Amino acid sequence: MMSNVVIRANNLGKQYTLGDGQSWCRTLHAQMRDSLLSQREAEGTRTRNANTELIWALKDVSFDVRQGEVLGIIGRNGSGKSTLLKILSHITPPTTGWAELVGRVGSLLEVGTGFHPDLTGRDNIYMNGAVLGMTKREIDKQFDSIVTFAEVEKFLDTPVKRYSSGMHMRLAFAVAAHLKADILLVDEVLAVGDAAFQKKCLSKMDDVSREGRTVLLVSHNIASILNLCGTAILLDGGEVQAYGTAQDVVDHYLSGNTPVQGETQLHAPHEVQPRQELSLQAIRIRDSRGRVTGSIDAVQGCMVEVDYMVHRKIRGGQVSLELWNGEGVCVLCTTDLDSCPESKSVPRLPGLYRVSCKLDPAWFRAGRYWISLGASVPGIRVLDEAPHAISFEVVDTGSVEHKLAQGRRGIIAPTIKWSATSLSTVDT
User: What is the pLDDT of residue 192?
Assistant: First the structure.
């Protein structure tokens, strides 16, 4: 390995077989059923599914990471990001190629990864340190910092199987960041924490890189990638689509995946999974006159329409929308329950639906914007999601209101009404 290069991936590939697991589960179910009901062997239950399919979750991925570098890995869901980190963490072996890492590696891939559920938080801190090759004295020096950062003092001697997902995540991140791993691999687990803790984690990762340690960060949060990472990799279909400066890769990702347009079809019927409860079907942008368009007036705002299909009855579901600007900052998030929270308890019956909302012109400066969609039963499960589903341009038409706002700082561009009252007068 070249001097100063601490991670080298060479033609990494990972292949999986689809169909076998499901086929064997059906076989086992059939065998149990026939044994219990008739006590005779069922014909054909031992036949594997002939329609198994091989897929490459990762293919021909190569890159180098130098000491102290922060590398961002971005891409749509299913693009191979988490598979790459699992290979680098030695959780799963590659089908082709190889990866070499120099130094202690701390991984934060899933909530609770690396924790023994029956051990206390205190015991797990020492166990993780020992896995990294640290002595008890080295762990003792970092122990108080870990506990303070994780905010789990009251539960330190409680088995971690009783921790909430947020507590799991806080402790896992604190352990990984403070136990002096030379390389820190972080997947999209920061989404579990609240906004204040996410900010603290991002600040800590910045500190880690300044200490000369290396970070690989997988995230859908474009602002985090731009703020923390000097370089980035864009994965799509398991292959590297772009590799370079974080800004260049993010620009390629946003512009390449979501062309400016007035309407996007999100799902074809054959793409819906058999047990999927809800699928997002389409999104479109309408201007103030109701026309579908990818370009809107900065002072007119726009209407967003979302079509979705309910395949099985759902209770407690919601459709959410995030508006992102060109700097990777989420300007706002709203859901179709905002105007009627009590409808959360009303079941959504099978059928095709359309929801819409108006985006206020005060939220826009001239430039490019993206909308991400999601559907979920909050706190329970994700039903469907479409990151960066559509992109549109906001055009400065030269209006007085827009000119007043453009020279000012801020994410949004409102012109706010002020009032004035004379409290005293002075004779001149």
Answer: 53
Question: In the prediction, which pLDDT does 282 show?
Answer: 93
Tokens 């991984």 correspond to: 107
Q: Of 147, 1, 5, give the one whose Cα is nearest residue 67.
A: 5
Q: Distance (Å, rounded) from C-alpha 180 to C-alpha 150? A: 16
Averaged pLDDT score across all residues of the chain: 80
Provide the domain limits for residue 370: 263-405
Do residues 202 and 220 share a domain?
A: yes
- The number of domains in the chain is 3
Signed CA dihedral, 61, 64, 65, 67: sign only: positive
Cα distance between residue 349 and residue 278, in whole Å: 10
Domain membership of residue 49 (yes or no) is: yes
**Residues 238 and 341 grouped into a single domain:** no
**Same domain, yes or no, for 18 and 112?**
no
Does 88 score more than 50 pLDDT?
yes
- 10 Å CB burial of residue 304 (0-12, 13-18, 19+) is buried
Evaluate whether residue 94 is within a structural domain. Answer: yes
Tokens matching residue 277: 């409860």
pLDDT digits (tens, 9 = 90+) for 376-416: 988 788 899 888 899 888 876 655 555 555 556 777 777 77
- For residue 187, pLDDT over 60 is answered with yes
Rounded Cα gap, residues 411 and 304, in angstroms: 20
Strands 367-377 and 295-297: unpaired
The answer on 386 and 286 residing in a single domain is yes
Q: For the residues of 243-262, what is the DSSP string, one character each? A: EEEHHHHHHHHHHHHS-B-S
Task: Pick the last residue of a domain from 257, 278, 311.
Answer: 257
DSSP secondary structure, 353-373, as one string: EEEEEEEPGGG--SEEEEEEE
Helix locations, 179-319, DSSP H: 195-210, 222-228, 246-257
3 state DSSP class of 158: coil
Query: Who contacts 240 (Cβ-Cβ below 8 Å, separation ≥6)?
Result: 60, 61, 62, 63, 233, 234
Answering whether pTM is above 0.90, one says: no
Spatial CA neighbour of 300 closest among 402, 147, 375: 402
pLDDT value at residue 44: 39
Going by pLDDT thresholds of 50, 70 and 90, the confidence category of residue 40 is very low
User: What value does the mean pLDDT take over residues 342-353?
Assistant: 85
